[in-house]
Amino acid sequence: MIKKITFLFLFYFLCSCTTEIPKIKPVDKNAIIDSTITAFQKTLLEQQIDSVFKKYNFNGSIAVFKDSLQLYRKENGYSNFKTKTKIDSSTVFAIGSVSKQFTAAMVLLQMEQGKLNVTDKASKYLKEFQTKEYENIIIHQLLNHTSGLNTFGGKLMFKSGSDFFYSNDGFNALGKIVETVSGKSYDENAQELFRKAGMKNSSTGNTFEGNNFASAYLGNEKNAQEVPNMPKRLGSKDIGTPAGGILSTIDDLHLWNNALYSGKILKPETLKQFTSKSAERHHAILGKMGYGYGIMMNIGKPESYFHSGYVKGSPSLNIYYPQTKTSVLILSNIADEEKGKSSTFRPHVEVKKMTDNLENTLLHLRSKH
Description:
Helix content: 25-40%
Strand content: 15-25%
Order of helices and strands: HHEEEEEHHHHEEEHEHHEEEEEEEHH
Number of strands: 16
Radius of gyration: 25 Å
Number of helices: 11
Shape: globular
Strand order of the largest sheet: 2-1-15-14-13-12-11-10
Distance between the termini: 63 Å
C-alpha cells in the first residue's frame, strides 16, 4: 500500500512538473542600460575626483549621490590638525553661503502660511528699512540680491531691482523678517526646517553641540592656523547666521537636496519661484550664472542648482542636477587665503566641470535609447 501511494505521489509530482512550463522573463533593456550607465558613472567619478584629491591634497570630503544611491565618496585629511582627528562621514562643516538657500526656504515657508509676500516692502517688517534710502526695497529683491544693498546703513549701489550686487546684509535682514513674522528665533526656525528635511546633524553656529566639528584653518597642512571662536563667530555681525552661519554634513546636505527638490519642503508653485532665474550674476570664480532665491543655476546645459560657500577656512559647494536627481557635495575646512579665493576653489571648480560634463554625456546617452 505504501509503495502504491509513493508511486502515485511521484507520478503526480512528475506530471505536474511537466505541465508547468517555466516562464522566461522579457529582457528589461532600460534596466540594463541604467546599470551600465551607473557603472560607467562610478568608474569615471572615481578616476576623476580621486585625481583632484591627489593633485591638491584636498583636505575635506566629496560625495556624489544619484537620488539615494551613493556613486562616489571620499574623505581625506583632518578635522582637527592639532589632535590629528581624521575627517569621517560624521564630520560637521561650516557651509558658509550655502546657508542662504535655507534662509530663502524659511522666507517662502512663511509666505505659504500667509504671513508675508515676497512683493512686500521690507520696511513693513523692519524699522531699519523705514528710511528714504531703503523704503522701496522688497523681499524679492533681498532674496535675489537685486536690492542694491551692500553693507547695511550705507547708500544703495543702484536703484533697487535694476542690477545685481551680492549682499550678506540683505540675507541677514531676511533672517530678521523671518523672526518678526514667525515670532521665533532664526535658530528655532532653522531647527524646524532641519527636522522637516530629516537632517539630524545640522545646526546653526550658535546652537552647535558636539565634538565632531571640523575646525577651520588658514594656510596649508604644513602650516595651519586655526580660525578662532568657531563656530560661534558665524553668528557675529561680520557674517550673520542667515547669510552664512549654518553647519552641516555631507549626508544631511544630500537629504536636504532630495527633500527640497522633490517637493517635500515647499509647495510646487513655491519651489518654482525658488528656482526660477530672476537675476544674473557674474561670479568671480564660477563665471556667469542665473540666480533665483538664495540659489544659483547654470545658464545653458546641464540644468543645475548650486551655491558656493565661504567663511574663513571653510570653502564649500553644493550642486544638484534635477534631471538625474544627482547631488554633488564638496566640503572642506582649510584655505590658503594668501593664494586667493580662486586658488582655494580650484578643486571645487574642477569637480563641477567634471560633473557638468558627465551630466551632459549621460543625458545624451539616455536620449539615444
